Protein: S-adenosyl-L-methionine-dependent methyltransferase
Organism: Piptocephalis cylindrospora
Amino acid sequence: MRRDIDKLWASLDVTPTVPADGTAPLELFETVEVRIVALSSTGEGIGLLGSFSSKEDTQDEARKGWLIVIPHVLHGEWVQGRVYRNHRGYSYADLDKVLVPAPDRQKAPCTYFGQCGGCQLQHMTYEDQLAFKKLSVEAAFEAQATILGPVVVEKVWASPDQYGYRTKITPHFDRPKSTTQCPDIGFLQQGRRRVLDVEECIIARPVLNAGLTQSRAYVASHLDTYKRGSTILLREDHQIIQPGEEGNDTDSPKEISRVVTNHKEIVRESFGAYQFEFPAGSFFQNNASILPDLTGYVRDHVQGGEEGRKMRFLVDAYCGSGLFSITCASKSFERVLGVEISEDSVKYARRNVELNQHLLPGVPCTYQVGDAETIFQGLDVPGPDTSLIIDPPRKGCSNSFLDQMIQFGPRRVAYVSCNVVTQARDLAYLEEQCRALHVPGWKLEHLCGFDLFPWTAHVEGVALLVRQEE
């Protein structure tokens, strides 16, 4: 949020009047009216107090330039909010009401929207959500423009399913207050650390909502066993049984879905012709409907082709249970190598090679346990003939990893990120280091987003790089 605030102040050429002791000019629970002049990268609206845009307080110099961060609003709207937290130069407020709505505001499809902290953008049309997320990717890379130069975000790929897409949800509840009253079971309230009671989530798979109903009944009948609050795991086990396989005596593929609540139980996720197994509590992408587009986009790049140069080797640096390395393996590769710090994930990556063997063109796929930062040590494949897939956690890559990547010099790189800010930071670091070392860097050939979580502010960034010639 601070980055968004500073950027807005700079664009408006406004500096707020902040007392030396940092005291805010607004009282907690004070009601304010503002016009929304920008949206933050996380989807909140930002309104500006003072003579620049507010209907009120135009003579109050103490409030001039002070910003109000308020959720569930659109650019240009006049809104009323109630302040609940103050920071240096800006305050957070709950939305009380929209005084003058934007013409493209839509009615939220979920009855819990505005209270539940899970979704941020249900007041936007889906087309506007994609446009907002494209701007979010652009803003992250604009922050590194002095190093990376101008960057073009080509598009944000839409999710085929906008409702009922989540294959995993984790509702919570606090410690029951008595053995006769069931606590609220659901998700954290917007801007609060309190649980909102949610009976159905419209972005969760139908089987998970059925599981939520069952879990609520179970908790209600076992209140005396909970000495503290708890989190419920609800994960879909989705299998496709082909004709002739056990359990399917028809001529068509048969889909079976059930809900799993045990973290250690093995589940299967299916999309296209691929199937993956992993423990229910482990990480796997939660929107299977967009995985064919996402993995296909990465596959087309790492195989090579645009410059007519096929790659011989594929390295997956944060391989998990093998999603990208398996879906991107092709007969053009002589070898596919995945590295993952979790021994359990490596075990299931190997299992998933067996599960998808009929789709793998005889390419040896090997997996090893190890830290991504040491992946290049002892790697016996030449960088110029290698494609590298990077899909790190939100914190991005360490400088140590990126330094080793420069030394290894993979020809093609696909950087998939759940945090476009750290993604842009990492690419800027690569460029700076390559310049300092006077070695060829990577050209950013393509940059786009993928909407893995419709109705939320999250966007997955995919950057496709090609090593420049000497």
